[in-house]
Amino acid sequence: MKTDFNKIISVLAISALPAFAVADNAFSGFQAGATMGYEDVSMDWEADSFLAPVLPPTTITPTGDDSESLDDSAFAYGVFSGYNFAINEKWIIGAELAFQDSDISDSLDSIPGIGPNNTSAKVQVNASYLLGVKGGYLINESLMAYSTLSATLTEVESSSACPSDGSLCNPGSPARSDKDDDDITGWALALGVEKSLTDNLSVRAEYRYAELGTAELTAIDMEPGEAVGADVDVDVKSQTLQIGAAYKF
């Protein structure tokens, strides 16, 4: 009797398998690829605090406009990999890991918010890493519209050159330079279309908007008797238009 019962359960389980079968389409499964395009980045500089070159440190009140809008545009390139799971014949969900880099930087002729000075500064935005979730809808069996929402990690660097002119740095000492960097986190939203060319190869076009975060940087490192300290915040946003190709494994 027990044997007959087990046979019945086995038959029912086998019969039910089609109901739980994973859907498949041209975009489901693991894929990896590369992208290239054009990136435009805004870097909004704002003074956080100025410190007089004395101990204990004394805050200097900013004067005038203590902010500056910086921006740059450049060729961008990257790689990505991900996995798409087909919910049914029309919809997919997935996860994607991406890397993007470009040569983005802009400069200031003087530090804003602390009176006339000749201290120049440069802000550079380095590579971004993105980890996101993806949703897609198949317009037809070989064309998919998709969107990706990602968390981002980006490194931002600053460098400055302070001349020995007495405005911010000691005129009796050699000119000095300072560097700093900060890893910032933010988010990105992408919208795109992907076209399947063969069973394994597809191409895509994508627009991505990203609020990468605010970098907290020391533009000038305060040193008693030598240099006024300058701490700044740089808010970074980017827009990218890119094309890419992917191989499905």
Task: Break the fold down into its secondary structure elements and pairings.
Layout: H1 2-16, E1 29-52, E2 58-60, E3 67-86, E4 91-102, E5 104-108, E6 120-140, E7 143-162, E8 176-196, E9 201-220, E10 229-248
Can you offer a commentary on this structure?
By secondary structure, this protein is mostly beta strands. It has a single domain (23-248), classed as Porin (Beta Barrel), CATH 2.40.160.20. It is built from one helix and ten strands; from the N terminus they run αββββββββββ. It has an eight-stranded antiparallel β-barrel with strand order 1-3-4-6-7-8-9-10. Strand 9 and strand 10 form a beta hairpin. The protein starts with a helix and ends with a strand. Mean pLDDT is 91; it is low at 11-21.
Structure in a nutshell:
The protein has 249 residues and is mainly beta.
